[in-house]
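Exercise 7. Given the components listed, write out the predicted structure of the assembled complex. Treat all entries as one system.
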Amino acid sequence: MAEHETTGEDVREAHLVTGAATTVEAADVVADGLPPDLDEAVGDGSLAAAVTGEPAAGPPRARRRDLMPSWSPKLVVGLVITGLIVLFAIVVPFFTLDPNSTDYDGLLKPGEQGHLLGTSAIGNDIWAQLAHGARGSLLIGVTVGVIALLLSVVFGIFAGYLGGWTDETLSLITNIMLVIPALPLTIVLAAYSSSRSMWLVAGVLGLTAWTGSAIVLRTQARSLRMRDYVLAARVAGEKSRRIIAVEILPNLLPLVAAQFLFGVIFAILGEAGLSYLGLGPTDAVTWGTMLYQAQQGSALTLGAWWWFVPPGLLIALLGCGLSLVNFAIDEIINPKLRNVPQATRRVRKAREREERAAATTEEAGA
Amino acid sequence: MKYDGRRVAFYAITLWAAVSLNFLIPRMLPGDPAQILLGKLARNGDVTPAVEKNVELILGGSDEPLWNQYWAYLDNIVHGDLGISVSKYPEPVWDLIKDALPWTLCLVGAATIIAFAIGIVGGAWIGWKRGSAWDHVIPFTALLQSVPYFWLAILLVYFLGMKLGLAPISWGWDVQTYDHPEWTWASVVDVFQHAVLPALTIVLSAVGGWLVGMRNMMVSTLAEDYIVTAEAKGLRPRRVLWVYAVRNAALPSFAGFAVALAFVVSGSLVMEQVFSYPGIGKLMITAVSNADYALMQGVFLLTTVAVLVVNFLMDLIYGYIDPRTRHHG
Amino acid sequence: MIRSTRRRSVVVAVALASGVSLLLAGCGGGSKGAETSTKASTEKPTGVANSTRVLNVWAGSMTPIVSNFNPFSPNVLHAAMGPIYEPLFAFNKAGSGDPTPLLGESYEFSADGTSLTIKVKSGVKWSDGDPFTAKDVAYTYNYAFSKPAYITSAEATDDTTVVLKFDSPQFTNEFSLLGTTFIIPEHIWKDVKDPAKFTNDDPVGTGPYVLKKGSVSSQAYTVVANPNFRDAAQGKPAVKTVRYVGLDGNQNAEDLVKQGKIDWTGMFVPDVDAVTALGIGYINTPQDPTTIYTCSNADQGCTGAQTDKAVRQALTVAIDRKQINDKAFKGLGAVVSPTFALLGRDDKWITNDAWKESPQSADAAAAAKILEDAGYTKGSDGFYAKDGKTVSLTLKSPSGWTDYNQAAELIASEAKAAGIKITASTISEQEYFDARGSGKYELLMGGVVGTSVADPFQIYKDWFAGFSTTKVGTPLKASTWNFSRYSNADVDAAVKAAASTNDEAKRKEQYAVIQKNIVDDLPYIPVIINATQTFFNQKDFSGWPTQDDLYMFPPSWGSVSSGVILANLVPLS
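Answer.
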């Protein structure tokens, strides 16, 4: 069966791209010990077919539609949160005060003198900093996501598909990077420029962000290498580059997208961590630099919660939103994650309905 | 066997490359150790001329060519000599590490194990209860996962430590009662109390990852043939959950857990800074901020070796844990 | 293979339990010396009320603490400098007045300043019981490892008299000679083979305290009263046990002070009221000037717009020192004088009233006039430029030094209003010390070490003299602090002349020359006198220095002064 095929790898590098057949069996799954009597099959095999690249049973349009996530509440909430924050980052900075201006009194509470979220110790308007900080953090996040993506595709997919010495060399580098302590490496890289621009910080984070994704992608590429259609393409004499671009990448698209989002979350948290250690960007306001200044300025001890709490909260919210979107992507990659809970929920509800119906007829009959 | 031989060679090369990089990277850090030390001393009071002279003597800087230094470094490592720390001169690096290691292993190790255990059990439960209201826990763990660690730590210190006074906020043990921790019940409880807040911050920030991963694997596993068979055979649900499902679903997490345990050795930098906890992370910070090459190299080496050893062991053990991999060996 | 569910739950329980027990077991690693007494001193009252109360001090040590009581080592622990070892005299950094005799009784320079005769106290013993004599003093000043080059000989002419001879007049070196040289016992140190590596784990000194054996751990160490202390007969020190702790951040220390777990510390606390509201004693003795270091001398290799005197002069009138004090220093700093004489202590050395205080408010118009007179024109972007090049400077401060960082941001803001473009940023500490030592910077936030006597001479000599500096690219030598690369022949001559006379009037003449130059040239742009805050437990201990009786420099990290204060404290019942 598809999901047991490990193609020589350990099962810990578990198959995330599963076969079609399992979705049909989802309905046969037992819910809490109940017998599999209520049969409500979900999925018609077309989704899975799309993932494995085989021609779909239904019309071709079904392919793309089924590749998109279904609108589960998790996805909606995730997209809404992320969307709101992105909008906040793009639009609001045009309407705020100058975040670097120190003309205002220090440590004003939210609402005082027209400052929506008060001011910092030296008089920066917090609302303005929050908005501009959103821009900064998101820019860094996306940049790192892209860098990490590119690197992990090279060190993951290329290595996994090509195999042989290329694979060995690239894997060696990946493992070494994994073991190198990130902190001093970061300090060294960051210290080489006397002023750390946002792009430098993003670059440094990107260099340390790709190893995890590379390992995951490599495993998947290795397993895909053995698929029928890929073998067929190789036999037909297609160049490796084309095979990777046309056959492998599209199938791994959901996974790649998930890794990209992971990269963004990692970058935003990583930038906050770097800023905490005083290594954040010097030419931009980000949530990380806000947190750093708040912590340095003893914000909490001084009772200035409006300085310390909002940036951290927004980082958490953005991370949460992106994670929820990632869950939705997980559900595309592994349809069981969506279908199984749905199926068991329907089974349980149907069972409850039955019981209630039975109870009322009993009462009626009494 | 050939496969294993290549694996070993693979690990050996990685080890050598990592060790060499560990030698190079500290030396790329900017700053002259003598200037740094003197500057720091001057920030907090007078520096006597005698001390200044001494600093120049100790930290004069090696004029040896880099290549010679490299060979000396490799030679020393093979003999187990990690050198003398400059920031805590003349304390040998090994002594510093030896004193800090138990604290890090205990606290960070225990917290990692607890986070893993809670994550696996919680994830298993939520996976088992798939489709029910329990699924709504997932977004909350996502929120928790995304919180910047130090932000969480500082908030917890402020609310639980300062405002509510629930737990101590500094040190590994109460220096005002015990000069050193003792083997008495009171002292042990004291050490435990001092570990509560730091461990809590680590657990809170780590548990989400294990939970979600386990839950996803559980959901996948529960849909597999053999589970269905077990149910059809009439086995008790509890047995199906724990004996069949969890065992298999947890397998992928174990590799990650092993690596996480390995990284425990490098300590938790931010946590030890915030709580003044006497662990390895603190040594790392001291080393980096003082351009203390020997100490930095010592701590990196520890981490490198730990991670590689654990990876290697996991590779070997995995064949036994999961028979499915065996016949492909 | 785990078959039964019961065994499975046992395994889970074991996993959790092992996690917990790992915490409990084996965490007692501690550090060496754990065999002897591990219980902190809480026993044996000696008749004085509450003399068992331990005084907890944080003097700035970070963890892990490593045993080192060698006064020549850079990693020496604070208790060695004052509580355990003493110099001949204690100088009061916080006030003007004669130094307090410790081991010395009196001293006198020869007329030409090349010889110093010191009378030391008699009847003093070392903490191991051996008698202290002038021979130990002579030994200390002759000790090859620590001897300054200018001492040509040190001789004990009798049991209580020592004569030091120098190669040049040393009138201005009083403090360095008599106030910072810790006297070491000949009978111990003559056997020390490698003074650089010697950790001196069992220190023998003359001070009021000795190390409590076995008390050094990675987090703290304890000192107890020295039974052989020369004032033991008067019951000194009255505080019998003092514990020094290690902490890793001001926040941590502040929290512990508020909880009453630390009785004496000195550090920057922004919200003083929150601490004093709890009844904790507080005193602020601003001491050290905070300035903007400028790499000022193009001849020495400095590059950048700040090498033009006009730019520095414009900057000093453009910044708003009051705002900087209010926002970055929480109003705790004091007004600085461009003569670098400490206002209120060194007033007699200010040679011209016009130079008394740096301007406290921003005057963009005055800055504009200075720049325009020097040939700068304002560009369309609002910044001044000369020959097509906009004045654009970088101002860096070490990350973590919040007061500097915040001040730098404010300065950049204020300079912008006056048309000078300044970019403030933080760099790692390593880069910072590297930058200032080598001269590779334009502007840096930096402190000037305040003098320990009521005389700014040391600052002129170490920070302004041309012989205290090097070219850009060459790190500064030890004991020199002229980071700005300033080199002015008039100033150098005046410094040399002032050093060779003990006549106040003559000195003032030379200071007039120095001050005229440095006020005009501004190699260091003075910003503020940085606060030096000390918090102390006045409920359980008395004898602290107060505003009315500032007999010693109050902070816990003051070497020498800490010993004097500790010996003076009395526990209250």
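Discussion: The radius of gyration of chain B is 24 Å. Chain B touches chain C through 91 residues (CB under 8 Å).
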